[in-house]
Amino acid sequence: MERTNFDRTPKTLPKYVDNTVISTMLEQAKKKRYRDYILMLILARTGVRVSEVVKLRKQDIQENTVIVRQGKGKKDRVIPLEKELSTILGLFSDRLTPNQKLFPISERQVRNIVYRYAPDGLEIHPHTFRHSFAVHCLKNGMNIRNLQKILGHTNLTTTQVYLDLTAADVQDDFGKVKW
Description:
Blueprint: H1 19-32, H2 34-46, H3 50-53, E1 65-68, E2 77-80, H4 83-92, H5 107-117, H6 126-139, H7 144-151, H8 156-160, H9 167-175
Antiparallel strand pairs: 1-2
Helix pairs in contact: 1-2, 2-4, 2-6
């Protein structure tokens, strides 16, 4: 029997958190362990996957970009870095050799770090940072094709999921309309 679009189960929206939650987590990490702060900052401001952040080496950090080598689908991509993060990463990696990993830890350890700083009652995973990054970029006017390149999505439809914001976002925006 041939499947139609009507047979498909609707996709749920990716779970994301607003920047105040991420900022709170970052501040806690900055006070407790600077490495955790840098790790979560990269997740929050680049949208990289956990598998990609654990592979990052000093040589992948350029002045204003980070190179993701052999990401999902064995593809390389270049992600722009904002000035503050670029400076922080430069200082953080200063004593490393070019081929040395920024974070010699496992994906499981990254998950544990994120869980450690998640506010009580909120289930936040490392991939939540990726979703939050995408939503934040779109809400601030980033072109969806550029976001697609940054996230490393092959198909634009994968990135378009982030256009379907939550009902609360739609309600807030609708409230701005003057009748």
